[in-house]
Design goal:
Layout: E1 4-6, H1 11-20, E2 25-27, H2 33-38, E3 46-49, E4 59-61, E5 65-68, H3 73-78, H4 80-85, H5 87-94, H6 99-102, H7 107-112, H8 121-126, E6 130-135, E7 138-143, E8 148-150, E9 153-154, E10 161-167, E11 174-181, E12 191-200, E13 203-212, E14 219-220, H9 222-228, H10 235-248, H11 259-279
Parallel strand pairs: 1-3, 2-3
Antiparallel strand pairs: 4-5, 5-10, 6-7, 6-10, 8-9, 11-12, 12-13, 13-14
Helix pairs in contact: 9-10, 10-11
Length: about 280
């Protein structure tokens, strides 16, 4: 089915195009949308591509880290400022698809697609990132944890654009890691887990845990966080946290893996992530 394709250079132009055609949809790298169009799953009348809007492709490191929604995944992987400020985000970016995909896909596209397996979501969730949402009438910020509402569903209303993700710089002694299990190297995740720890020796002062492909949308595992926070990270604590992770996730069975296997992966990846952070080794 043919469709119109627009390439505005400003958000104002994008909003004018959207107002002229309420059925048009905003897109970024199109790595997912074009596949779904070819498969006949969606049939948009018009696409408004945001890739030429320079305001969406900026990274600012200051009192907060502000990453434009149009920043390419490859830049998240290689940008020195991001690698220093949010190394776990660079780590996740390096595991997303192929080199070709990373050169096209964007941060905003990965998040707005709202897939349960979005690789960039768990690292941002453990950093308690905020989503900056822009409209023709202004902007608002919400916790990224509130951005996802279900499989391929977000809080974005017609005419709204995810313009940036905002993260407060972590404390100096905070460490985080992202682990992902797929069937093959470039497969989407059967399960993924991000863990952030602030520790004093073996004692955990703060823990943040998020999971992908283990529920209807990327999710924080708050029960697991409660077990780890304030505890000595010994074998008994890890066993309790692993059991809680397997209980807290809500995986499905599909052609790629069963729910029970995904629950097992949730616990295994959590334990592996915590141990790698405590050992100070790269996973």
């Amino acid at each position: 089915m043919p469709f119109d394709y627009h390439r505005p250079t400003t958000l104002e132009e994008a909003w004018r195009l959207a107002a002229a055609d309420p059925e048009a949809r905003f897109v970024a790298g199109c790595t997912d949308v074009m596949v779904r169009i070819r498969e006949g799953k969606i049939a948009p009348r018009a696409l408004i591509a945001l890739g030429r809007i320079s305001d969406l492709a900026r990274i600012a490191i200051g009192p907060t880290v502000v990453i434009g929604a149009g920043v390419r995944v490859a830049e998240l992987e290689h940008n020195a400022s991001i690698r220093h400020a949010l190394p776990v985000l660079s780590q996740a970016a390096a595991l997303l698809g192929s080199t070709q995909i990373r050169n096209v896909a964007t941060l905003g596209g990965n998040l707005c697609n709202a897939s349960p397996c979005a690789d960039l979501a768990p690292p941002l969730l453990v950093h308690e990132a905020r989503a900056r949402i822009a409209t023709a009438g202004g902007a608002r910020e919400i916790p990224l944890a509130s951005f996802f509402v279900g499989p391929r569903a977000s809080v974005l209303a017609p005419g709204e654009v995810l313009s940036a993700v905002v993260v407060d710089p972590p404390a100096p002694n905070t460490r985080a890691v992202f682990l992902k299990q797929g069937r093959v190297r470039m497969d989407i995740a059967l399960a993924s887990v991000a863990v952030l720890l602030d520790t004093d020796g073996a004692r955990c002062l703060k823990a943040r845990v998020a999971a992908g492909s283990l529920g209807p949308c990327p999710m924080r595992l708050t029960e697991v966080e409660g077990i780890l926070t304030g505890s000595t990270l010994d074998a008994a604590t890890l066993a309790r946290a692993r059991a809680a992770a397997e209980s807290e996730v809500r995986p499905i069975s599909d052609v790629r893996a069963g729910a029970d296997y995904r629950r097992h992966l949730a616990g295994a990846l959590l334990e592996r992530a915590v141990r790698s952070l405590m050992n100070g080794a790269s996973p």
